[in-house]
Amino acid sequence: MTARMTAIVLETTDPQRLAEFYRDLIGGKIVDAHPEWYTVEGPDGGVQLSVQRAPGHQPPTWPDPASSMQYHIDFAVEDLDAAEEHALSLGATKFDHQPGTSFLVFADPAGHPFCLCQD
Predict the structure, then answer these.
(1) pLDDT for 41-81, tens place per residue?
(2) Are strands 37-42 and 45-53 parallel, antiparallel or unpaired?
(3) Domain spans of the chain?
(4) Digit-coded pLDDT (tens) for 1-19
(5) Which of 97, 107, 30 shows the shortest CA–CA distance to 73?
(6) At 116, phi and psi to the nearest 5?
(7) CATH superfamily label, 58-119
(8) Which residues 6+ apart lie within 8 Å of 87 measured at CB?
(9) Beta strand pairing status for 45-53 and 113-118?
(10) What was the pLDDT predicted at 3?
């Protein structure tokens, strides 16, 4: 038997705000909305992104050798400059440290790291 990945779940103090951020970033829709849990589905279906309330959530710091990023999500984009502008307009924060040239590293409004990667 093999497992099938169905969702990535992020913790945050404000699930609605974070779900709206990812919905707008990927052009998806919110398919489940409750005060403690929201689920976002992309325009092509596939793996869902859920967010759950965690009142004590503290985002990781990056880059910081004393603190792990823990995980990050990569998003493929056709136009890196346009995608950067769009992410920033939605409330993302671009990290000062950018280790590559074909991708950009950001934090979502709750502080989770993610990358926009040139497709």
Answers:
(1) 999 988 999 999 999 998 888 888 887 767 789 999 999 99
(2) antiparallel
(3) 1-56, 58-119
(4) 676 878 999 999 999 999 9
(5) 107
(6) -100, 120
(7) 2,3-Dihydroxybiphenyl 1,2-Dioxygenase, domain 1 (3.10.180.10)
(8) 25, 94, 106, 116
(9) unpaired
(10) 65
d(CA 24, CA 78): 16
Q: Does the structural domain 1-56 have CATH classification 3.30.720.120?
A: yes
Q: Tell me the residue type at 75.
A: F
pLDDT of residue 87 exceeding 90, the answer is yes
What mean pLDDT value characterizes the chain? 92
Would you call 37 helix, strand, or coil by DSSP? strand
Tell me which DSSP letter residue 90 carries: T
Residue with tokens 């793996």: 47
